[in-house]
Design goal:
Layout lengths: L10 H5 L11 E15 L13 E15 L5 E12 L4 E15 L2 E8 L19 H6 L10 E8 L5 E9 L22 E5 L9 E10 L2 E11 L4 E4 L7 E5 L2 E13 L2 E11 L15 E13 L2 E12 L2 H7 L10 E11 L6 E10 L4 E11 L4 E12 L14 E9 L1
Parallel strand pairs: 8-12
Antiparallel strand pairs: 1-2, 1-21, 2-3, 3-4, 4-5, 5-6, 6-7, 7-9, 9-10, 10-13, 11-12, 13-14, 14-15, 15-16, 16-17, 17-18, 18-19, 19-20, 20-21
Length: 422
């Protein structure tokens, strides 16, 4: 998934010079949109103790993007934020999507603040994109840009004729945001245990996440190397050892990721490959059932245009768990047992009609190992340059209620987004 473009000042305005002084001006650009988003569950099921009945999502958002740049272009400031009104709970909230100050010039730049970062080549299948995701937004039908969450830290980028580098230091941990139990039904270990707590890594120097990407173009190939040191974004579950558990603790184990990706043109299309090794630093031997085992992840994809204004993208993804025997010995009796290999196949079909006024698409994911699937058809319609509509559906299914997609099979929904840009 490509990250949404950052708001930029108008290049023409940035380069205009004051007629009297001959000096370039500082520039400020303000724009945004008004978004109405709603999703209704189609299964007739209701989350236990949930809110909203059959309403999965009902909200309006006012977005403002404010970007400023000095005359020299060396200092930039960007703030992207939403004011959200939840129709179900009748409450207002703020959502700072991005907010940073940057300084740069020549071959290097530095940014400090909240930033959305996207690495890797997968289309909704992630290996080296280790940054936080908002699955609640995605499965509710919000626009794709809301899948990514920002990280609060320092980002430096440097370019040269030899290699380009992208580096992040993130002292404040941000986890993935799972679907809300108030709007979704899904698998929860030991839901009857009253004492449940979540412990996130404290903001400290020793817990600072570090990430590095090195990349360059070599002989027709776009090549990237990645390294990350931090934590798993999804929590693990620690249960007290008594015969009748009375407490559950969710925590985020240590993780390091090392990977690479390569992309090139092939037969009028684009071929992509990506690999990553997930080093579960908290339990490298695989003996702790509460900590994910180390694993290899592989991805291959191909995107091409078989007809006018039509695009097809296919992917094959695989996870291979290390130390499978140690894992099987450690799993508590009665708990779901993962397979050593998890495979996923996906296809995305997109068609542009009438100069991109209509945009039908469908994204399908199927796991032959988990025997579950996810289907997302969408129809986009652009009424004017400023007003657009997106209608779609989220369809889940699976043989069991403990797999990634199978656990949401009671949450099938239809969604509608109405957006006015200004």
């Amino acid at each position: 998934m490509a990250s949404p473009a950052l708001a930029q000042s108008d290049p023409a305005a940035a380069s205009r010079q004051d007629a009297g002084s001959g000096q370039a001006k500082n520039t400020v650009a303000i724009h945004g949109f008004l978004l109405g988003a709603g999703a209704l569950r189609t299964t007739g099921e209701r989350p236990a103790g949930g809110e909203g009945g059959g309403v999965v999502l009902g909200e309006t958002r006012l977005r403002l993007d404010v970007g400023a740049k000095t005359a020299s272009g060396k200092i930039t400031i960007l703030v992207k934020g939403d004011v959200v009104y939840d129709i179900v709970t009748r409450t207002f909230a703020g959502d700072l999507r991005e907010g940073y100050a940057g300084i740069g010039g020549g071959s290097a730049d530095l940014r400090i603040g909240r930033q959305i970062v996207t690495w890797g080549l997968g289309d909704l299948l992630f290996i080296n994109d280790v940054f936080p995701k908002d699955w609640d937004s995605f499965f509710s039908g919000r626009p794709m840009e809301y899948l990514k969450l920002g990280v609060d830290g320092v980002r430096g980028r440097w370019s040269s004729t030899v290699v380009n580098a992208d580096f992040l230091a993130v002292p404040v941990f941000t986890s993935d945001k799972p679907p809300s139990s108030k709007r979704f039904s899904f698998f929860v270990p030991l839901p009857g245990v009253v004492s449940q707590q979540e412990i996130k890594p404290a903001a400290s120097l020793s817990n600072t996440e570090l990430a590095l990407r090195l990349y360059r173009h070599v002989s027709g190939l776009d090549v990237s190397l990645y390294a990350y040191r931090g934590f798993w974004r999804s929590p693990s579950v620690q249960i007290d050892p008594s015969l009748t558990p009375t407490s559950v603790t969710r925590f985020y184990p240590d993780l390091a990721v090392y990977g690479a990706s390569v992309q090139r043109g092939l037969l009028d299309g684009v071929l992509s490959a990506e690999v990553g090794y997930y080093d579960s630093r908290g339990d490298r031997g695989g003996n702790d059932p509460a900590v994910p085992n180390s694993q290899w992840r592989f991805l291959a994809g191909y995107q091409f245009q078989p007809w006018k204004d039509g695009t097809v993208g296919v992917q094959a993804y695989c996870e291979v768990m290390k130390d499978i025997q140690a894992y099987r010995r450690s799993v508590p009796e009665g708990s779901p047992v993962q397979d050593r290999v998890r495979g996923v196949l996906s296809i995305r079909l997109t068609q542009m009609i009438r100069y991109q006024i209509w945009r039908p698409s469908v994204f399908v994911v199927y796991s032959p190992t988990d025997k579950d699937f996810f289907l997302r058809p969408e129809l986009g319609y652009k009424l004017t340059e400023n007003l657009s509509f997106t209608f779609g559906a989220n369809r889940f299914g699976g043989a069991t209620a403990t797999t990634f997609f199978g656990q949401f099979k009671m949450d099938n929904n239809l969604f509608l987004n109405v957006r006015f840009d200004f």
